[in-house]
Automatic annotation (TrEMBL):
Residues 208-237 form the 4Fe-4S ferredoxin-type domain. InterPro entries: 4Fe4S_Fe-S-bd, 4Fe4S_Fe_S_CS. Coiled coil: none annotated. It holds the Pfam family Fer4. Keywords: Iron, Iron-sulfur, Metal-binding. This is Epoxyqueuosine reductase.
């Protein structure tokens, strides 16, 4: 099994899955029914033994609770990371609504998340079938993600953290760099979702076409203006607490869905790298 085959499995899955279409049952506006949730994924690959993973254990990056690829799977050779960009229909719907998330975005966030999990399981199954042990860290029982401060994590209170971070993995795999809004700006933009797998399958790592963590962000401030609750500022970046409070409000209002994503639309990094957009 090679990179081409891995990518092909994912592309076929996303292209052909009935769950990649917005369904009537979601009660979405008729013009959205039948539209795609995601466009084709883009992929990045990183060596599981890469020393850069040690950086993620530093307190100012993630912290000592971050588990490196070989802590998830001792025989790991490669980390596979991918980005699923939201379709134009999903992004356009959220551009129109100024404060609350659009129906298309809510479906993209919740049904889209289910599809992302299915894609991860599909890739895991195929790579295992080819004879290589593989783990999806975010679906493993050892995975955790916290929003409330926990006192004794690495000896200091930490909140809004996890022991595996899709965006950091994507950054190390060459997929993109961080924006002011804390999303990751890729060649397909910032609006979308990330996933990753750790595997024994040996695949050539990608070169990272950047040297600093925020190389693609121009600090234009468009995401600052977009945020309905002023959770982003040029000086301090994103306040996860304020953002979390707003997301909880959307969860109450749109139960069983939630989401916002205003900082990912109507911005120069929405669908590409600012300055490099077609
Ligand atoms: S909108 Fe501008 S400041 Fe915000 S993340 Fe994108 S490029 Fe950076
Ligand atoms: S997701 Fe919404 S609330 Fe959170 S930072 Fe982005 S625009 Fe603000």
């Amino acid at each position: 099994m090679d990179k081409k085959e891995v990518i092909q499995i994912a592309e076929d899955f996303i292209e052909n899955s009935a769950d990649n279409r917005i369904k009537m049952e979601s009660k979405a506006p008729s013009e959205l029914v039948g539209e795609k949730i995601y466009d084709a994924p883009i992929f990045g690959f990183c060596e599981a033994s890469d020393e850069v993973f040690a950086i993620l254990k530093e307190p100012e990056v993630i912290g000592c609770h971050f588990r490196s690829p070989r802590e998830w799977l001792p025989t790991a050779q490669t980390v596979i990371s991918f980005f699923l960009p939201y379709s134009e229909a999903v992004k356009a719907s959220n551009r129109e609504q100024k404060i609350w998330p659009s129906w298309g975005w809510l479906v993209g966030r919740v049904e889209g998340h289910r599809l992302l999990r299915s894609l991860l399981l599909q890739l895991e199954m195929n790579i295992k079938k080819a004879g290589y042990a593989t783990i999806v860290p975010t679906l493993d029982k050892k995975f955790f993600s916290i929003t409330e401060p926990i006192e004794e994590l690495c000896g200091e209170p930490l909140a809004f953290t996890s022991n595996w971070s899709e965006r950091h993995i994507a950054y190390l795999s060459g997929l993109g760099t961080f924006g002011l809004s804390k999303g990751l700006i890729t060649e397909k933009g910032i609006a979308g979702r990330f996933g990753s797998l750790v595997t024994e399958l040996q695949l050539e790592p990608n070169q990272r076409p950047y040297e600093i963590y925020n190389a693609y962000c121009t600090k234009c401030g468009a995401c600052v203006k977009q945020c309905p609750v002023k959770a982003i500022s040029i000086e301090k970046g994103k306040d996860h607490r304020l953002c979390g409070i707003f997301l909880d409000k959307t969860a109450e209002k749109f139960k069983p869905r939630y989401g916002c994503g205003k900082c990912q639309v109507n911005v120069p990094c929405e669908s590409g790298i600012p300055g490099q957009n077609k």
